[in-house]
Amino acid sequence: MSKPAVRPGYETEQALLDAAERLLVEVGAAGVTTRKVAEEAGANHGLVHYYFGSVEQLLVRVLERFTERLVARQRRVYAADVPFLEKWRTAMAYLDEDRPYQKIWFELQALAWNRPELRERLARVHAEWQAVLTEAFAPVRERLGVDVPLEALVTLVYTFNEGIMFERLSGIEDGHRELLDWIEGWLREREEAAQ
What average pLDDT does this structure show over 3-9? Predict the structure, then answer.
């Protein structure tokens, strides 16, 4: 059986994305240059512009690629045949595991504040996460007796997560464990009442 064909340049493109991802985490968007990405990837610096047009477009593509993987994982978590509380615990555990992604997300949000051309692509990433949460909470909101409109609930959970991520990236973790424990207890009570 033959191996599926890989389009020409795919491996170089992925190497550039991998290099940019590492650099974003290590030095932040301000420290990423065409030359640094190319050097990290072991490629000619002209290839960054050839494949992506600019460093900024490369960085947004890093975020999009990373998001694709995490969105697929989150959908699997929320589709699992386990109580919602277990799904919530698993999703919240990723707050500790996904710090590289979180740093990339916030680095690129800050970059887009002054680059309107990047905002649309970041808005699509945001919409993907909103869709994941909408799919996760729609079937359980009523069952758990959560009297909050679905869109408001999704926005609350999304903003809550971003707040925790932002504080943790800033070295602040005061109260996070207590808040997560309280939410778990509240969800446990709701799950028990719904049975």
Answer: 60
Please name the residue that has the structure tokens 């500790």: 96
Q: Which amino acid is at 26?
A: E
What's residue 1's pLDDT?
59
> In the chain, how many H helices and how many E strands?
9, 0
d(C-alpha 37, C-alpha 24), whole Å: 10
Using alpha carbons, list the distances in angstroms from residue 107 to 126, 142, 149. Answer: 14, 36, 31
Give which of 46, 48, 51, 12 is closest to 32, Cα–Cα.
Answer: 48
| pLDDT band at residue 175 using 50, 70 and 90 as cut-offs | very high
Listed in sequence order, the residues at least 6 apart from 116 whose beta carbon sits closer than 8 Å to its beta carbon are none
